[in-house]
Amino acid sequence: MRVYLGADHAGFELKEKIKSYLQARPVKVEVIDCGAERFVDGDDYPKYMADVARHIKEDAEHNPSLGIIFGGSGTGEAIVANRFAHVRAVVYNGNDFEIVKLGREHNDCNVLSIGARFVNEKKTIEAVEMFLNTNFSHEERHADRIIMIEELSKN
To answer: Of 9, 55, 77, 86, which is the active-site residue?
Structure first.
């Protein structure tokens, strides 16, 4: 499985920790870091989130991949990612992990947006593991909704 990472200044430190975690975990994933490559105070998140989303979009039909993006709240980052066809981002900012699970099971989310100002490394690892280990349910009602969402992205 390929996992793309992206972060701005607010999420940089946490991205680096999660990158190390993913590279060392027993069940290997291919980690591709889309930046930032170094901490730059005040850098703008859209370019990093768009880079991750472009990769997810390009991979969608032939080799589906996942993305994990990091910013202050996770909200703006998810907004950018969700602008791309075939990309569905769920935000995790420290609340119930069930949101991550439902995002995968019901919405086939392929991007996890982390609100780095609201979570610690331990909670982020738990959310990441839930994201990586939960699959889309393929229930008809959920699959139909994904088709509806994809149709909207054509407008």
So the answer is: 77
Pick the CATH number of 2-152 from 3.10.129.10, 3.40.1400.10, 3.40.190.150, 3.90.190.20: 3.40.1400.10
Respond yes or no: is residue 121 known to be catalytic: no
Query: What's the length of the chain?
Result: 155
Q: Is 138 a catalytic residue?
A: no
User: 23-71 pLDDT, tens per residue?
Assistant: 999 999 999 999 999 998 989 999 999 999 999 999 998 999 999 999 9
- Per the CB < 8 A criterion, the answer to whether 66 and 4 are in contact is yes
How far apart are alpha carbons 90 and 93 in whole angstroms?
A: 10
Among 13, 106, 129, 142, the one annotated catalytic = 106
Residues 100-155 have pLDDT tens digits of 999 999 999 999 999 999 999 999 999 999 999 999 999 999 999 999 998 987 76
Amino acid type, 52: V
